[in-house]
Amino acid sequence: MSADPGSKARPSNAKASNEKPASRPTPEALLGRAVRPAALALADGTVYRGRAFGATAVTSGEVVFNTSITGYQEIATDPSYAGQIVAMTYTQIGNVGVNAMDDEARKPFLSGFVVKELFDAPSNYRAEGSFDAKLSAAGVPGIAGIDTRALVRRLRDFGAQVGVLSTDPAVQDDAELVARAKRAPNLDGVDWVARVTCAEPYRFSEGAWPGVEGQLPRDPRPRPPRRIVAYDFGIKKNILRLLVEQGFEVTVVPATTSAKDALALSPDGIFLSNGPGDPAAVQGIQPIVRELVQKKPVFGICLGHQILGLALGGTTRKLKFGHHGGNQPGKDLATGRVAICAENHGYAVEAESLHAAGEPVEITHVNLNDQTVEGLAHATRPLFSVQYHPEASPGPHDADYFFGRFRRMVDRVVAGEKVSGAEICGIAPKTNPSKSARE
Hints:
- By secondary structure, the protein is of the alpha/beta class.
- It has 14 helices and 19 strands.
- Helices cover 24% and strands 27% of the residues.
- The strands form 3 sheets. It has a 10-stranded mixed beta sheet, sandwiched between helices.
- Strand 18 (373-378) and strand 19 form a beta hairpin.
- It starts with 26 loop residues before the first helix and ends with a helix.
């Protein structure tokens, strides 16, 4: 065998082969910061240890996992996550930093954030800061460096459960953290909407992100303008932006705004927004919605979909670990088409409860993973709703056609036509409305 050609060029002062190479500096050393300990304890006694980022705090919440690959900033600022600790299944988080335009609410409302690997130094032309700094300023703790695969498998197999996340160096004892997790409340029966809704009505007129130079021009906004009232159960900004793009003049109102006060704004339609927690626990909203659906076209998304289902006499149930991510399959029963959907919910409307309530309500969409109700429409009134997030922030744009459907429904009602949500959704009524009413 011939000698290594490179061996002849080795300098005489080369280090001996038994010398250890210099160790690589850690990211913390490069950034000049100390490693802070962090622990995530579940109510079942499991404890995960890693390094802290974000705020120094001890928080509790329902631990759920999100399967999105992109959009961690939009996820962290989605008010629908209030009361929850979010674990990302995608391994690398923070690489594109954060910027003010991508925030979905005035601040993050979630209880904590869990990642495998955190990028401390972002690299993106839109970045205005780091994800770490954003969570720190908002008082939200995070933990990095844990085996997120093990955590997600536990949640998938045994269901979402309450956990405690501590980034406080003085509160790191396993037994104490597990005891706190066992005492902490879950989402059931708690009105989280009251904690995230706006305090006063306001107008929203910001359109969609203008995009980058050279892209194809967008379609013009429909005219004439139509007025809508948007109930804020934890509303996302990108939903509002897409409503504006449909030519709506949007007034956002607090969650408990009476039907009388909403109708006093002379709206052409009513929008029921996304939001956090148990829909059955939202105080006082069902009677309001029952009154509104008698007088105006209504469109609901996510929690708004569930609240509309409850107002129509249905019931909701808690899912094992919920749907959180940008890759859920939603089938449109009218067309047979399957959309890849962005979802964020832990409860679902019970299909049979809608049928038993006596209202002529049609199921328009289902989730192909578990057959849960993803959309509903009324057979005689201008009402429809969807469980997933058609604004896709983050996520695919497969389902953004719902905003156009809402605009067409409102236009037809304003024109004096008698139109139903089922007709707008392309669903031929399967029920006999007169028979349902008699029964």
